[in-house]
Prior knowledge:
By secondary structure, the protein is of the alpha/beta class. It has 2 domains: 8-57 and 398-447, Roll (Urease, subunit C, domain 1), CATH 2.30.40.10; 59-381, Metal-dependent hydrolases (TIM Barrel, Alpha-Beta Barrel). It is 35% helix and 19% strand. It has 14 helices and 18 strands. The strands form 3 sheets. Strands 6, 7, 8, 9, 10, 11, 12, 13 and 14 form a 9-stranded parallel beta sheet that branches. A 5-stranded antiparallel beta sheet has the order 5-15-16-17-18, covered by helices on one side. Strands 3-2-1-4 form a 4-stranded mixed beta sheet, with no helix packed on it.
Amino acid sequence: MSDGRPDLLWAPRAWLPDGWREHVLLRIGRDGRWAAVNPGVAQPPEDASVLTAPLLPGLVDAHSHAFQRAFAGLAERRESVTDDFWSWRDRMYRVAQRIEPAQLRAIAAQLYLELLQGGYTQVCEFHYLQHDRAGQPYPDPLTLSWALADAAEDAGIGLTLMPVLYERAGFAQASLRDDQRRFATTADSVWSAAHTIAASGRAHVNAGLAIHSLRAAAPASIERLCRLATSFDGPIHIHVAEQTAEVDDCRVAAGARPIEWLARDGLLDRRWHLVHATHTVPDEIDAVRRSGAGVVICPSTEGNLGDGLADLPGWLAAGVPLTIGSDSHVTRDWREELRWLDYGQRLSLRQRNVSAAPQHDQPATAERLFGLATRSGAAAAGLASWGLVPGARADALLADAQDPALLGLPASHWLDALVFSSPTRPWRDVMVGGRWVIREHRHAQGTTIASGFTEAMTRLWDVGV
């Protein structure tokens, strides 16, 4: 191709919607999408790029707060009697109050490069850092949104940018706290922001909508946003039932548990994605199943914050679409998220391979979880299709055949090893939109991005965040 994209790829093995297939020939169209995917092509054509390791689709990171990458690793000391989600949140707010647009771009670019290295090729940015440090809108109200979009372009990752409805500090509080002043939005401002983002024409950027949580948005405002979005076909994300205190407060304020409230008011449909959904009861899981909504579980963040364990067996048994997110970015690799998704259940239930389903001919834990996250990723990101299928964006991951975790193993067990035999190397090659953005572990802008991130972090932490 004249723009440097390969026309044809031939992989000895590739992960297609029905699992591993042998000798797969993939054609990339001029629009950066898969034009054809054909397994069983025993010999590669002369003009094909012959790959030397299995090819997998990239995953959607369905939940991200990019600015929190500046806080990863810096909240792991306890200097008071107790430390929990709420004390972590107060410290995180102090970081949020410091970040300027150029710093956000530098932090997000480093994050997005690391997400690519960790196997994500699309990230859903749950974006609630909106205003300047005084809490006033920038001359362009979307200044920080564009900083994220610029960072995604710098790294080469796809971005679903979701402005967040955030207007109060809690169920019984009518307004935000002073340390939340940068987050203030209304239903109308969120709708306008999403429309502007969608119309921007930026490559690999699309828009969704988000509601921070039921505690942070009044019912009338949620209803207003839903009315504005009546004909909107993109994703709608919300934090829900992450903490038991949130569930208790919701029951007092609304007479219902959070997911019960959403279902009772008829809000849920296939566009909705419930982030965390940690503390649920079976009736809520069934309501989500009937609505067509999905859930986004963020195992490393939920573990880091002490949130608790989601009812993964319940969600799996119900067949609810399930994706994963890196959230606060203490981990930036989907292999570790899938590992801890099952390990948490193993510790709780004292069983092994909890997520496997041999009764449904799915005996491999990693393959079942990866397949589910791949299938559910398109809806979470507001994309028409996903994976190594015709029409989907040509995103792909090439494993490192020299990874010690893979040496000597039959290829049929490589995905098992990539998830459960850690540590593993970063993905050797990563493709987004038909172009290799990482090649032999190298990103063309990696050094520049790392330098910008280091400078931003130095400035943030030199002022005593």
